Amino acid sequence: MTGPRPTRKEYVARQRALHGRPSVAVLPVHYPKELLTALGVLAVELWGPPGPPRGDAAGRLQPYVCALARNALAFLASGGADAVDGVLFPHTCDSIQGLATLAADFGGWSRPAFTFLHPRGPPRPSARAFLRAELRSLAAALEPLAGRSLTPAKLAWALELHAEIHAARAALLDQRPRVALSDPELYALLRRGEWLWPEEHLAELRAARAVMADRPAVQGVPILVSGYVPEPPAILEALGAVGAYVAADDYAAVGRRVVRPGAPGSAGPEEDPWDRLVARCWAAPPCPTRSADPGARAAHLVALAERSGARGVLLHVVKFCEPELFDVPAIRQAFAARGTPVLVLEGELEAELSAQAVTRIEAFVELVSAREAA
Amino acid sequence: MTPAAIGVDVGSTTCKAVAIDADGRILARAVEPLDPRIEPQVERLVAAVGGGAGPEVPLGATGYGRKRVKAGRAVTEITCHARGAYARTGRPGVLVDMGGQDTKVIRVGAAGEVLDFAMNDKCAAGTGRFLEVILGRLRVPFDEVGALAGGAAKAVTVSSTCTVFAESEVISLVAGGAPPDGIVKGLHQALASRVAALARAVASGAPEMFLSGGVALNAAMGAALRDALARPVRVVPEPQLVGALGAALCVLR
Amino acid sequence: MILRRVQYEAARRVVGPVLASLDAWQRRLRRRRGRPRAGPFGPPLQSTRKLKELMAVHYYQGRFADGAVPVAWVTSGFPVEVLRPLGFHAVYPENHAAICGVQRLVPALSDAAEAEGFSRDLCSYARTDLGSVIAGRTPVGRLPRPDLLACCTNICQTVLYWYRALAERLGVPLVLVDTPYVYGREAKPHLLRYVRDQLEELVRVAERVSGRRTEPEALAEAARLAKVGTDLWGECLALGRHRPAPWTAIDGFFHMAPIVSLRGSEACNAYYRLLRDELADRVRRGVGGIRDERHRLLWDNLPIWFAVRELSTLFAERGFNFVCTSYTNAWAEAGSRIDPADPLGSAASAYTHVILNQDLPNRLGILRRLARDYAADGAVLHSDRSCKPYSIGQVDLKERLAAELGIRVLLLEADHSDPRAWAAEQGENRLTAFMEGFA
Predict the structure, then answer these.
(1) Do B79 and A363 make contact, defined as CB atoms within 8 angstroms?
(2) Residues 118-157, chain A, touching C (beta carbon < 8 A)
(3) What pairing do the DSSP bridges indicate for beta strands B5-10 and B14-20?
(4) Tell me, what CATH number does B29's domain have?
(5) Does residue B11 sit within a domain?
(6) Do B76 and A366 touch (CB under 8 A)?
(7) What is the interface pTM, i.e. ipTM, of the complex?
(8) Are C201 and A115 an interchain contact pair (Cβ–Cβ within 8 Å)?
(9) CB contact (8 A) between residue B122 and residue A360
(10) In this predicted model, what pLDDT tens digit does every residue of C344-388 receive, in sequence order?
(11) Which domains does chain A have, with CATH numbers?
(12) Would you say residue B199 lies in a domain?
């Protein structure tokens, strides 16, 4: 790699200039990235931005609305996303639901706005049929911006490409101790997938896999982290500073969207690509914004902890985030039954980690280390 | 006598230091209001309790300012309070530590280890600051608080969850003629109920409950907590020094 | 089982009504002995007696429901007409939580939920209900255990998280009617098809749980009753357009209990005929909900249950009456879309196009229309901490309403049932200052 890395904004501009690629900013969490790739549209995920919201627009949302919605509204309204051609709002929760209409209808984003209504609950026949129709509807809505039509062949190609990306990310995450990078470095690599053109992201992932060690290269207290997004990055540094590392990841921005090989959706190419995409949407790990079962989520996290040898669980939730907070008791109970300590750390997408938050993390790692030693 | 270890607790309002012998018994202690120039203050207190002992005596540092103590090993106040409380009580249970700006609830295990903990949110309403601000407004001296609250026939309910709003609520109550002793009792109840809410998740099923921190010196607080939790709550001896003691124990070889 | 069924029916037909009238007698006696009613309000509505009886009997009957008939716990926006033909006794945890709110029981119940790890930042209805289940405490005697949890996300996504937690705890199946949000005027066809398909799936699950089959005529009849009920409720509300309004919208918050909890039943409709006739009579005689109506206000969002009486009095004393609310209005809007000839298809449309499931321009349109139709010269938007779908956008709605209609609008921070989120002193000050600003 030569020269300094472009910023996200520069990258978006370059993609348009060099490849004629339009771009769409995407709010969290779940969306059919394959559709955008198949249409030649660059997805630029907005996981924040962190830090105090810029401009006045945040004042249009009350203080008890989560920082995600407030920061995003402020970002859009202050022109932070002006480099892209459109914004996609998935129907993630009540706050993002409201954010979409607030920004698009009452001011804050005047260019094309798209919505993606993913169904909730298990993959019932009604939900599958709806999702298929909704995916087609979204594709049709994006075609004018993309400047081309979506063909089944292109969709199939995009599905293959993203399946490879998922597999590569899964390999790095599931065998994390063999990746000789610090947590901040590993996450920086994985999070570049939020805005890199998928083929470029895949190339970086492959390069990282090629240099994986044969034996565990990372030492320390293994922790499972679940939550929204690893912001501020200082949280990873705080863990590292007291000798812990992220052994298993269930961040919505990272591990919770990784579809593992063998899961439905990664089936053979003879299936209709739309059916494959529908199946893929249900194949990601359990997420409270999609599924209907806190028990399944807790069981998934327990399995994740077991597979990775994690000795403690950090639930890094965003204050006021209802889908995450409702699951906390079930998760705590599941791990209490196994004797694994759980720390619930509330964040607000702040730019700096407070001393209190650092103390909590340190005390938690002290607690877990003492148990290991005992 | 050369101490076997020294512990400092650099809190948000006070700085405490404790020197212990090889058996963990306290040899000397010191408490001062916090000086923003932390390092010179710590040096002075360490020298005072250490009896002139040199740098070979292990130094443990805890509290908000623990990382500013260069010569010490930093351990969080959670771990230190658990160690210190266990050393003083000899029993597992749940420790409620109420400091000036921080309230912590720590589940202490059978060997003094931390099993679980909770800390108050970024809000003063569950901490000593709540009482300090409002009692200051009412001009009630700290040493009279316990007697005043204890002597009140009935508590006057203070319903605001926010320290700032509670302050104006109390002013209204006083202007309306509500008895000061009842208000003081009500304030303690309000604070205790917030602390109890923090404590409940950590404390369920715990054998015993203990109270430490500067606020524990206020007898009315212990009583109010007992009522809010509907359980006996014992004040740890020398409640302000629990953290510093724990820090010293953590570095004791 | 048969004995249980007999108890259940007896509770509704005989015992309940007797107990309710006994209670009413006691209240009347107490009132006669006490001071005569004075104050800023008009004479109390006679219908209220019947309302109390109706709801008391419903909750009393509920004590004997489990084991007698299939029991469902239902969200307020759920298309309950689908369950009526199968003989379900429907319990509304939101209505129950509102009762707890009025009786100021929420902090204690929420403490029980918080002790299990539920954050205090979660919806206070959910905390109340989960706390009630966890602690085994309720002010209504006893709630019957559900055989089914019936959840519709048209009012919010939170009910799904809440009902999932309930399903986990109670070990009971959860049926979900997922109504995706409507951006734009009308829901897209594939969205409505989705909701309709879910209703078909729901019917099959409900049949399994109840051990009964759905008779098409019974389903059509339930739809008809629901339509008639919502239209009657709409007529009651519409009488508030007169000057003076014959009742206060605060009354409305209590009188909406039947359309929420008993929708699709003849008892509900009979009640609203009674209420409508009484309100129409008051209009004829010029009797107002408050004695001296000088200003008319619109209320947006849920009520502040634990302070309804105090706030209502605060306003009435200064001649302010809430003549319309977006909340009470919500249960009158669905009626126009319900069609007994196509119960499931029309329910899919009716329950998808509710105020909380449609975008902000639609919401603004409703508030604007209400303010105009009811000649409101001011509005209070309750910024309900617990209800994000209702509260998001209010800052903008306030500005737009004020600008478009030239009325004074106040945004009031509170919560619908947790008094710990209400700064009474400061809140009442703001409301008083707001009222002083009216010429």
Answers:
(1) yes
(2) 119-121, 124-127, 129-130, 133-134, 137
(3) antiparallel
(4) 3.30.420.40
(5) yes
(6) yes
(7) 0.95
(8) no
(9) no
(10) 999 999 999 999 999 999 999 999 999 999 999 999 999 999 999
(11) 8-148 (3.40.50.11890)
(12) no
At A255-274, the pLDDT tens digits run 999 998 777 655 566 689 99
What local confidence, expressed as pLDDT, does residue C30 receive?
Answer: 64
Percent of chain A with pLDDT over 90: 86
A·C CB contacts under 8 A: 149
Whole-number pLDDT of residue C99: 94
Cα C79 versus chain centre, distance: 14
- Domains in chain B, number: 1
Task: At A186, list the tokens.
Answer: 């590993």
- Give the residue on C whose Cα is nearest the Cα of A329: C117
Please name the residues in contact with C257: beta carbons below 8 A apart, sequence gap of 6 or more. C51, C54, C55, C95
Task: Find residues 213-252 of chain B whose CB sits inside 8 Å of chain C.
Answer: none
Distance to chain B for A52, nearest Cα, Å: 16
Strands B26-33, B14-20: pairing is: antiparallel
C240 confidence band (pLDDT: 50, 70, 90): very high
CA distance A296 to A294: 5
Contact C289, C246 (CB under 8 A): yes
* Domain membership of residue B31 as a residue range: 5-81+242-251
pLDDT score, position A268: 60
**How would you list the strands of the sheet with C320-325, edge to edge?**
C320-325, C295-300, C378-384, C408-414
The parts of chain B modelled with pLDDT lower than 70 are 121-125, 161
pLDDT surpassing 60 at residue C36: no
Tell me the chain B residues in contact with residue A356 when contact means C-beta distances shorter than 8 Å: 102, 119, 122
Which ranges of A147-286 does DSSP label H, i.e. alpha helix?
152-174, 183-191, 198-210, 234-241, 273-283
Taking residues C220-237, what's their average pLDDT? 97
Chain C residue with minimum CA distance to B172? C425
Residues in C touching B162 (Cβ below 8 Å): 423
Within 10 angstroms of residue C342's Cβ, the number of other Cβ atoms is 14
* Residues pairing with C110 in the sheet: none
User: Does C189 contact B at CB distance below 8 Å?
Assistant: no
Chain C residues touching A100 at Cβ < 8 A: 183
Contact B117 A367 (CB under 8 A): yes
pTM, full prediction: 0.92
Which residues, including other chains, have CB under 8 Å from residue C189's CB and lie 6 or more apart? none
Paired tokens of C165:
């937690």
B-chain residues within 8 Å CB-CB of A359? 64, 76-78, 119
Kindly tell me if the per-residue pLDDT of C27 is higher than 80.
no
Beta bridge partners of A26: A45, A88
pLDDT in tens, C11-21: 888 777 777 77
CB-based contact A355 B64, cutoff 8 Å: yes
Is residue B38 one of the residues assigned to a domain? Answer: yes
| Residue B29 covered by a domain | yes
Q: Would the pLDDT of A1 be above 50?
A: no
